[in-house]
Amino acid sequence: MTPSTSTFTTRLTDAARIVEANLEALLSDNAVPGELARPPRLMAAMRHAVLGGGKRLRPFLTIEAARLFGVEGQGPLRAGCAVELLHCYSLVHDDLPSMDDDDLRRGRPTVHKAYDEATAILVGDALQTLAFEVLADPATAGDAAIRSDLVLGLARASGLGGMVGGQLLDLTAEGRYGTVTMGEADVRLLQMMKTGAMLTFSVEAGVILGQADAAARGRLIEYGRALGAAFQVADDILDREATSETLGKRTGKDQEKGKATLVDLLGMEGARGECRQLVERAESALDAFGPQAQTLREAVRFVVERQV
Q: Where are the beta strands (DSSP E) in the chain?
């Protein structure tokens, strides 16, 4: 693996800036047609949850995947923002006392600490529905079939067979519902659902907007799955090696709760080897796209090399 290039870093930074501006516009206090009002406290808490932090990796993947098929502009940007809104909802609910009970997120108080638990629950609910509203809006894609495909994909990635189901498996792994022993296959499934499904859809959303054929879509989904798996293994490594100050959130949570990760099952060197294999798998999936896919190749390397 080689370090991500300055060109990649510039593109990631530029995308994050544009995404941030669009998220800020979506979270304006001003009601849009069809809304009666936007309660100021709810909007302030939603902005606290979404703005001013994060690498915006998920929307970046959507934008870059769409660019691979010649599609740029508002469609990929809005679809990426929808994915980010959904992701931020999941973080708000994940931080609640009934879930991970975290006080810190991106170096700031979590929503339930900055406001209260009831507001945090409503923030998550509102961000989730807003994500689907953005995808269903003709401003994202003029073709209703594309919009439908996007909504269906996000629902499946984030719902009972994806992120939400993965969160339930995560709670099960903590022993919430009785003592369990997690094997390697169990851990991989949990991670594929809780984290990997949304990262995979981030890529697939760009492919949907690009109206790629089945073969190209399959290759990009394979890339997304490898990237998602690599992201989680790298996250497990960081949880062991980084400090809370560096990450902007509490570390060592899995060890505290006795929850197995691939670091536990494979060892630290085994986990690093897993990352290398996943990078190779992701890059192989992009072979057919040639130099045009270089930014996506850099993205998977960035995922495993990041320090935050």
A: 104-105, 108-109
Q: Read off the pLDDT of residues 99-130 as tens digits, 9 standing for 90 and up.
A: 999 999 988 999 999 999 999 999 999 999 99
Q: What is the fold, at CATH topology level, of the domain defined by 6-305?
A: Farnesyl Diphosphate Synthase (1.10.600)
Q: Dig out the tokens for 289 from the structure.
A: 């796209």
Q: How many Å apart are CA 45 and CA 122, to the nearest integer? A: 9
Whole-number Å distance between alpha carbons of 289 and 206 = 15
Of residues 193, 125, 183, 200, the one with CA closest to residue 160 = 193
pTM over 0.90: yes
Q: In whole angstroms, give the CA distance from residue 141 to residue 274.
A: 38
Residues near 47 by beta carbon (within 8 Å), at least 6 away in sequence? 24, 27
CA 170: distance to chain centroid? 16
Least confident of 1-10, 48-57, 107-116: 1-10
Instruction: Check: CB of residue 99 under 8 Å from CB of residue 37.
Output: no
Kindly report, residue by residue over 280-302, the tens digit of the pLDDT.
999 999 999 999 999 999 999 99
CA 66 to chain CA centroid, Å, is 17
The pair of three-digit structure tokens given for residue 147, joined into one six-digit string: 């919009």
The alpha carbon torsion through 250, 252, 256, 262 (nearest 10 deg) reads: 130
* Residues in the chain, total: 308
What tokens does 277 get? 């294999």
Backbone φ and ψ for 104, nearest 5 degrees, come out as: -130, 135
